[in-house]
Amino acid sequence: MNFNKIMFTLLTLAGLQTIKAQENTENSLKEVIVKGFKTVNGIGHLPDSKDGIIYAGKKSEIILVDSLDANKAVNNTRQILGRIPGLNIVETESSGFTANGIATRGLNPSQSVEMNTRQNGYNISADIYGYNESYYIPPMEAVNRIELVRGAASLQFGSQFGGLVNYVIKDAPKNKPFEFITSQTIGSYGLFNSFNSVGGNHKKIGYYGFLQYRNMEGYRPNSQQSQVSGFGKIQYNHSKKLNFGIEYSLLRNKIKMPGGLTDSLFYANPKASTRARNWLKSPWNIITAYANYTPSENSTLSIKSTYLFSGRSLVWRNEDGGAGATDGIDPITGAYVPREVGIEKMNNTTTEIRYSQNYSLGNQKSTFASGVRQSHAWFKRQGGGEGTTNSDFDSSIIGDWGYDLDFTTTNLAPFVENIFKVSKNFTVTPGFRFEYLRSTAKGYKEVEGDIQLTDEVRNRTFALAGIGLELKPGKNTSLYANISQAYRPIDYSQLEPFGTSSKIDPNLKDSKGFNSDLGYRGTIRNYLNFDIGGFYMAYNKRIGVTLATDPITGDYYSIRKNIANSVHQGIENYIEFNILKYFNSQSDFGLSIFNSFSYINAKYTTGEFKGKRVEAAAETINRVGLIFSTSKLSTTLQYNYVGDAYGDASNVMTSEDPVAGHIPSYTVLDWSASYKLNNLAIKLGANNLADKSYFTRRTDEYPGPGIIPAVGRSFYLGFTAKF
């Protein structure tokens, strides 16, 4: 085992530092000295295989969160994930939602519905096929690294067009029985964030846990929020071959939503609020048990079993005029109108088993990986209930629910991939996944005074295939290419919307397509890191929002339906250059510049909107950062440019319905810095330095409907101490 090679790989992924190696004796290990300041490699990629999962030939990225200068107290996605080329981010902090949604390649970023979102390798959304919206993500102060894999992740993780994002929580510190870390942050708009963690190892037992409390008054009136999130993990290391453990994640929040805006309201005052009585709670609970077994040097077996029990409650004034309607006291009754109430209860059990085996084929070592995912989700949706005329969070209703529905999804998915090492530098990796889905819907819905009953069962089976190629012309560079099929079934929210002002086409069908990549990536010594590539994605029977006309009244309304087929193609480039390391590889200072650039041409290729741009798909996303670092100081200035987009498939510039319309391009500047002194670190920064007024989302549902403004200029200051 070459210790230096292992350390170099880890440091490359981590974005950490220079290595000095000195051979002491013929039989001794080389001395490795790590300096705690960043050089190049702020973003890396995953190895050919890791923990029984194959990544060879796939486009992947990995970010070590502690290596970043960013406002982690509010999970500022723009700073933390901004280096990922083409990443579109929906910013909803001004309406209380701080778990900003993300998407790649021109897909819908709202609540990350197009992503396979995981924590420590297991899913953290309620149901990746039935209800894939993400309301919980861990606080970034607790995250060690973030792993992303583009569309080729569908074979190993499940068929989401946007690919995989996996938040890996920090682990127990090695060789320490106890460690305590506290981080306290204050900031603009009443921000107070307290993060505290403990961890350690004693004999064969390791443990780690954190508790976070965050409170914000909010950028806009009526946007207060409070949140508590926590995590606990205990692991028993039985031997070098076997370990097992259990972990628990929780979220408790209470969000006040100030409502969406029409175009005229936004341009008159982006901080305006149209609602003072809209509330949301989304408590989240996830329990996971796992075991990892390494029977030999060349084989691994892992089992993860997860139980998710969560929910969401919404109390709001939404309809009768949408974003432009006022919510005032009725002069006749002397009270507000009743609000609408909706309650959802989400449960999911999932077990994922993975096995990998290295074996010799000819003169080369190949890798076989297989597994199976089994899950069952049950989902209770009650909505349309007439609530109270109060202003506080009160989910009681008068009379019956407007709809009361029960959904279930059963999924069984075996999968297999194999790295065939054709030569020392060339690999071919075919893969196959088979999916079985069974969906049921039972209950009733009131439509114009009539009660409609439903008792529906839908069974589907489908196969996904793919292949990846990778050629390594140099020790630290590689050419990669892949193509993989993808599939996205209709989810619950598309069948029976909760808190939406759009209508639903009763003839919705599942979406199918594929992803493909071609790229060149690598590092040159310790001063240059790059990943330059192109992609092509076909998304058939795409579900989206568009405008329709009521044949009786002539009024416009928005409707969700299978719009048409779309094609997304473009380039995704990341380059980071350390100027000082280029001139002096042994410099104790670092001065880097990075550029994360994408051009995305996402258009409909069939149907009535042929040639129109896909909604929410910005053509150009360009982020440039300048980083200066020493052993104690690190500071980053980041420029963010996101091109314009449209709210719906018709590409109208303006509309009476605020869901449809233009989303202008915007430019935002962020600055963050940290100073470390022994076990203490001071952090400070400013987001949206130029106080730009902009928005990233038009929505037909919470936290709108309408335009959701982004947050203006804000500052933060905090410290972290380790004991």
Please, could you describe this protein's structure?
There is one protein chain. The protein is mainly beta and 723 residues long. The chain is built from six helices and 39 strands. The strands form seven sheets. The chain has a 24-stranded mixed beta sheet that branches. Strand 28 (528-549) and strand 29 form a beta hairpin. The longest helix has 12 residues, at 3-14. It is globular, with a radius of gyration of 25 Å.
How many H/I helical runs? 6
Tell me about the biggest sheet?
24 strands, mixed
Range of helix content: under 10%
- The N- to C-terminal Cα distance equals 34 Å
Structural class call reads: mainly beta
Mean pLDDT: 88
Q: What amount of the residues lies in strands? A: over 45%
Number of strands: 39
Radius of gyration over all CA atoms, rounded? 25 Å
Would you identify the regions where 5 or more consecutive residues have pLDDT less than 50?
Answer: 1-39, 497-501
Shape: globular
Give the secondary structure arrangement, pairings included.
Blueprint: H1 3-14, E1 19-22, E2 31-34, E3 49-50, E4 53-54, E5 60-64, H2 77-80, E6 88-90, E7 101-103, E8 116-119, E9 122-123, E10 143-149, H3 154-157, E11 164-169, E12 179-187, E13 191-202, E14 205-216, E15 225-237, E16 242-257, H4 263-268, E17 278-281, E18 284-296, E19 299-316, E20 340-361, E21 364-386, E22 403-421, E23 426-447, E24 450-474, E25 477-488, H5 492-495, E26 503-504, E27 511-524, E28 528-549, E29 556-578, H6 579-583, E30 590-604, E31 620-629, E32 633-642, E33 645-646, E34 662-663, E35 666-677, E36 680-687, E37 695-699, E38 706-709, E39 714-722
